[in-house]
Amino acid sequence: MKLADFIKSEDFKKEKHVPVIEAPDSVKKNEPFHITVTVGKEIPHPNTTEHHIRWIQVFFQPDGDPYVYEIGKYEFNAHGESVQGPNTGAVYTEPTVTNKVKLNKSGTILALSFCNIHGLWESSKKIVVEE
């Protein structure tokens, strides 16, 4: 059994789990640009005490490189918890992250998210680096 056996990429109809990657299709070599990853962009994810996205992880796989490089891991730790009970807290985090990066090689951005109820979800986006 492998961890990859548990990673899903096809979403449910009523709620979204697959991370949506927003980034340019092409960028200039070593020129900074933003990558935004959101879970629940089209149809919101519940993000309640009982059901929420815990984290998003973003990676880069350069073309022709045998390794994947981690860009970042982002935790979402406030889901309406309170001593008064579930969903009564003062703050709820929304699973969206933006990172500024530079690439010197074309490749693929990979995103992985974790729902505390429905497990691991992935997506990817190819980016071409122009000289």
Automatic annotation (TrEMBL):
InterPro entries: Desulfoferrodoxin_Fe-bd_dom (IPR002742), Desulfoferrodoxin_Fe-bd_dom_sf (IPR036073), Desulfoferrodoxin_SOR (IPR051233). Keywords: Electron transport, Iron, Metal-binding, Transport. One of its GO terms (molecular function) is oxidoreductase activity. It comes from Pseudothermotoga hypogea DSM 11164 = NBRC 106472. Residues 10-123 form the Desulfoferrodoxin ferrous iron-binding domain. Transmembrane segments: none annotated. This is Neelaredoxin. PANTHER family: SUPEROXIDE REDUCTASE-RELATED. Pfam families: Desulfoferrodox (PF01880). Coiled coil: none annotated. Belongs to the desulfoferrodoxin family. The lineage of its organism: Bacteria, Thermotogati, Thermotogota, Thermotogae, Thermotogales. NCBIfam families: neela_ferrous (TIGR00332).
